Amino acid sequence: MSSVQTQIRRLKEMPFRAAMKKIAGKAIQEARFAYRQYRISRSPITLRPELFRSFETTSTFLFDPLSREHYVNLLKKEGMDQEIIHDAERICTHVFDLLGSGETSLGPSLPWHEDFKTGFRWDNKFYKWIKIVDLDNAADVKVPWELSRFQHFFTLGKAYWLTEDEKYALEFQAQLEDWMIQNPVEMSVNWTCAMDVAIRSSNWIAVVPFFRKSPSIPESFWESFHSSLYLQGVFIRGNLENTGEHTGNHYTANLAGLIALGIYFGSFNVQGNQPLLGNPADWLTFGMDEMEKELFVQVNEDGTNYEASTSYHRLVAEMFLVTTMWCSRNGLHFPDVYMRRLEKMHEFMLHIMKPDGLTPLIGDADDGRYLIVSRYSGWVRSDFRHLLAVAGEFFERDDFRNAGISSWEDALWIAGGNKPSRIPELDEPRSVAYPDGGYYVLRSPEIYCLIRCGELSFHGHGAHSHNDQLSFELNVKGKDIIVDPGTFVYSADYRARNLFRSTAVHNTIQVGDMEQNDMEDRNLFLLREQTYAKCELFSYEYFAGNHRGYEKKSGIIHRREIMLKDSGLVIIDKLEHATPAQSEVLPASAAFMLAAGIRVYADKRNLILQAEGFKAIVAFENAAEVQIQKGWISKDYGVREPSQLLRVYTHHQYLRTTIHWD
C-alpha cells in the first residue's frame, strides 16, 4: 500500500469533522509554506557577518585548546599519527566511503545535494517542498545528509595539529564556504531534517579549537561561520522533531544541538530588526530541560533505549553522554537521578557485549554517530567500546575503563584521557536480563547467546524493530556462529528493507509465510505490535519465552526454550494452540542465519558447521526437511555480504534443535 493510499484510508476512517479539520489544516499549512517560499525567494535568510565581528566564545570545549602539545605527543607515542594523516589526505582529495559507497572520489567540488552512489540530485528549493524519499528510485537521502554532517572535520583538525600544515585548515575553510553558498538557509535538502542540522552544528563547534588560530583563515571567514551557525540554531528551535506519535533519536539530536549552540554562544544574542531569531540562552535552557525529560521518556528503567535497537541505543547514549559532559565542563549539571539512568545505559552496553568486544546489531542500524573523534575511516559499527571508554572516566567506573581500553583516543578527546584502572581486568561476564528492553543474555565460559524477547520500539509502534521475537545470536569461544542478518538499507530499496526486517531471515520460527507482526510494503518505519513477547523464566543457563504474533492469524502461540549445556545449546520450539478446540498442525520453519565464513555440510542425519578452529554438529528432532539456502548479512549500512541460512521445515508442534561442539 502506498503512502497516499494509507493517508486516504486513514481519512476515511476518521469522523467527518475530524477529517475536514485535518484537510483544512493541511491547506493552511501549504499556504504558509508558499508564503514562506515567496519571502525567502525575495529576501534570503541571512545575518550580516559583521554582527559577529566581536564574537569569541567564552565556553569550555570538550578538549583543551591549550594542550595541543600534549595531544600531539600522545598520538605520536601511540602510533596513531600516520592513520590520522592518511585519513585526512583522503578527505582533502575528496575521497569518501559513506554508507556503503566504497572509496569514491567525489571530484573538486563536493556534491552536497547528491546521492553520489546513484547520481540522483535534489534540487535547491524550499525545504518543506523537497521530496526526500521516492520509493520508486534507488536514491538514498542519507548520503548527502551524512556528508553534510561534517563528521570528517575532527580528523582534519587532528592532522592540522599533528603536522601544522595549513592545507588542512584551508580545506576546512574551503568546504565550509562552499557548503554555505550551495545550501542557503531553508533552501536545500540539507535543511529537511533538523537532526542533521543539529549534528552538523555540533561538529562545527567541536572543531573550532583546532582551526581558530590558523594564520591562513581570515577573520571574515569566522564572521560568516558564526552567522551560519547561529541561523542553524534558529532553524533547529523552529523545526523540532517532537510532533509525531513518539519522540526518539531525532529529537535527542535536536536538543543536543541546541545545548551545544547555547553553550558556545553563551550570552551573545543578535538584536535589532529580527526579534524572532531566538536567544542562545533560551536554546540552552530549553535544551537542558527537555533533555532531562527525554532521558526518562526514551530510556527504560533498566537502562535500555525504547527504540528496541542496539545501534540506536548506542547513538542516543552518545548524544546524552557527550552533551552531559559538555554541560559539566561549563558548570551545568543534571540531577543525580538523571545521571544514574545515563550510567545504566552504559551498563547495558557493557553487559551485552560479546567476548570479542562487539555487540549484536539488533533491530535497525544506520551507522548513525554524533561525533567521530577517532578512526574516522575505520570505526566498526558493532563496536560500542568507544562509549565505555568515555563513560569510564565520566562515571569513574573501572569496569567501563577496562572494557573500553582499546578506545583510549575517544577518552582522550572527550574525557581528557584515561586514568589507570584499579582492577586488573573485567569480572567474569554473567547471564543477564533486560526485560524492559527485551534482551536476554545467556553466558558460560564458552557460550554467548543473546535472545530478543520484548516490546517493539516506541512502545509498540515498531519504527526501528524487526520481526525478530525469540530470535537469538550465538557466539562460541569468541567466534560468531549464528547471527542477526542486520539492516542493509532503508528507503533506497524498500524490498530489501522489508526482507532484512522480515521473520523469515531471523533465527526464529515462522508459521507458514506469516509475519510475526504485519508489514506494509511501503510503510518502512511502522510495525505495529502483534507479538507481545514475554519472558516466562530466565536463569543463568535457561530462557523460556513466548510471543503471540500468530495467534489471531492462525491460533498459534510460539514458545521457545533455550538451554546452555556443556559444549552445547538446546533449543525447544513449541507451536501451541491458543484454544483447546484447535487441532490443526500448520507447516512451520525455523531459520538459522550463519555468520560469514561458517561452512555447512550434511553428515548422515546431522549437519556439520565448520570454521577455523571450530566444528559443531547440529541435530533436529521432528524436522521434515532441512535446506541450506543463500542468505545475506549486513554489518554496515548499505553493505551486505553473502552467507548461508539453514531452513528447517516441520509439520509438528514440537521441534528440538541441538548444537554440540568439541
UniProtKB/TrEMBL annotation:
The keyword Signal applies. The lineage of its organism: Bacteria, Bacillati, Bacillota, Bacilli, Bacillales. One of its GO terms (molecular function) is lyase activity. The keyword Transcription does not apply. Its main location: periplasm. It holds the Pfam family Hepar_II_III_N. Residues 139-380 form the Heparin-sulfate lyase N-terminal domain. This is Alginate lyase family protein. Residues 429-660 form the Heparinase II/III-like C-terminal domain. It is found in: Periplasm. InterPro entries: Chondroitin_lyas, Hepar_II_III_C, Hepar_II_III_N. It comes from Paenibacillus dokdonensis. Keywords: Lyase, Periplasm, Signal. It comes from the Bacteria.
